[in-house]
Amino acid sequence: MTRWEHDCAGCCGRWRCFFQKVYMHWVLLVVALGLLLFWDASFYQGCSEDSRCGGLISRHVANDLLRDGEHEHNLASLQNVQEVLSQQRESSKKAIYKDSPSAIGINPLLSVIQAAVAFNESVLLLMNPPFTGLRNALQEEIHQLRCLFAKGVQTDAVMVEDGMVQCKHPQNAMRKSVTGSVVTLKFDSSILPATALYGKIGWKKLVYGVSPLEDDRDILLFVKGLSHSKRSLLPDGLECLYGDNVRTQVTAFCQENVRCKLPARRIQHEVNGKSVTIVLRDKIFPSVVRFSLGTTHFDTHTVVVEETQRPFFLCVCSLVWNGAKFLKEWIMYHSSLGAQRFFLYDNNSDDDIENVLESLRSYNVSRHPWPWLKTQEASFSHCAVRASSQCKWVAFIDLDEFIFPKGFVHTKVSEVIEPPLHCLIKEYDRVDKGKLGQLKISNFNFGPSGLRILPKSGQMVNYICRMSVPKRVKSIVRASAIHPSYCSRVHYFELKAGYVAAQAVRRDAVIHHFKYHAWEDFKLKFVRRAATFVTDWGQNKDLDSFDRTPGLGTQAVEPLDWAHQFCEIEDTSLRDYVMNTSNFYLAGKLLWE
């Protein structure tokens, strides 16, 4: 019998054996905790008694993070935030940092980072509405912003807009170990309080956006993963859910659009600050939308603006990604034809778009961050809602599409009584006796026209060779005629009963779609696109999609004779109009050169 077996023999021996085993377990546990503490020490390395490590940020920057005029119940004071963080630091000296909201002890109302949405290539961090101004703080002073995961893992951070930060994923070797743990932002040496968990929210199924509606006290939710069907039939068992138990009726549905009734006003305070989502046959969708009283998202006192009282006759909506190079030409041209207001939904551009838009301020252009991938239809729906109180008609086109109302244009400014696009719309509305809801315009695709590099004079005067048959259409839509679901098919909208759609005769209007650019510009589409169906041409899927280019594979390799492809008919009509119209010139150059 061994010494261990001998010591454990008999009744007393068995009790002594039990205590020895417990003692050994405690030793192993202490060793393990010591190793874990050493592993996580990087989070607090260099933190002294008066350090700001774990704090919000310095006071003068933090003050900028607080939105003016917010209700007190939506946000505790900065002093309270700092008190909570001070308690955090004290508790961190006594306990091991476990990378979970409960371990950190953060009140969700004081959390800066409320959600993290994981895409294939990045993570989108969403900040609580009361916190804003971080973008300005980063621009005014030299600061460093990093995304901070568990185990001290840091990645690059890109500010999308106040309230939105794009992060790179951790390296593959570290992803599994940090999944399910808190992800936040590190501002210089300070860590922002967060309750967002990395890997908890994905992009396959999510309520990701909301838009207020001016009538019937409804809102429009945007939902990923609800339906791939082109039909607008309302699914059985679909409801809207506010908080944990307040359910309301779905009044309209189409693809990713769900129109919801707001809760009764007497109970809205009960769901203030809580999630807004949908329930499909008792299955609750994850959501990053929160109900907030007194904000423009949930204003129940809006007034419907009659069509005749809207300030703009024609507006334009577009989803853009890295289109700064083409913005001036596109905006100046359409403005000259009668476009009075431009809504640009920015799908994570990282070019010079903001500086270019600043130079175009006089053209009434606004930029709206739209970080959601493969959601062009939803962006058009959202823009239609936004424009409905300001615009009578809205054109939905891309930056490489130019409407040419050739039957209504004049090269001499003195001959122009009314903008050409206004004349086009009014003429077709007159024919339909005031019931025109949508004007569809044929879309002709142009090729590189022999060019390898696009000259500074722009697209209209250089791309002059096209395909003979039009592909698809794009539409100018009457805002008040759009179906209650705001259902967009990208190329057209569904209309309310009583309105009609018309097809513009080609001698009256066409769209010049400069789809196949000179190779130096075209190859950038392999990086990423703001498309609905195929955003990444480098992926080996959806190879037969209309979003792809015939003859191209998944690699950005220039095909033989690319410069002369997609050229069946020489068409100089738009170039001739631009070159012979005096108001496109300044000091002998085109306005956008």
Which helices and strands occur, and which strands form pairs?
Layout: H1 3-7, H2 10-39, H3 59-62, H4 78-94, H5 101-104, E1 113-118, E2 122-127, H6 134-140, E3 145-148, E4 154-161, E5 164-168, H7 172-178, E6 184-187, E7 190-191, E8 201-202, E9 206-212, E10 218-224, E11 238-242, E12 246-248, E13 250-254, E14 257-261, E15 276-280, E16 283-284, E17 312-320, H8 324-337, E18 341-346, H9 353-359, E19 365-369, H10 376-387, E20 391-396, E21 401-404, H11 420-431, E22 436-445, E23 465-466, E24 473-478, E25 500-503, E26 510-513, H12 519-522, E27 569-570, H13 573-579, E28 585-586, E29 589-590
Parallel strand pairs: 1-8, 17-18, 17-20, 18-19, 22-25, 22-26
Antiparallel strand pairs: 1-2, 2-5, 3-4, 3-6, 4-5, 6-7, 9-10, 10-14, 11-12, 11-15, 13-14, 15-16, 20-24, 21-26, 22-24, 23-27, 28-29
Transmembrane segments: 23-44
Main location: membrane
Family: Belongs to the glycosyltransferase 92 family.
Describe the structure.
The chain is of the alpha+beta class and 593 residues long. The protein has four domains: 3-43; 59-201, Immunoglobulin-like; 206-298, Sandwich (Immunoglobulin-like); 307-590, Alpha-Beta Complex (Spore Coat Polysaccharide Biosynthesis Protein SpsA, Chain A). The chain is 22% helix and 23% strand. It has 13 helices and 29 strands. Strands 17, 18, 19, 20, 21, 22, 24, 25 and 26 form a nine-stranded mixed β-sheet that branches. Strand 9 and strand 10 form a beta hairpin. The longest helix has 30 residues, at 10-39. The chain crosses the membrane at residues 23-44.
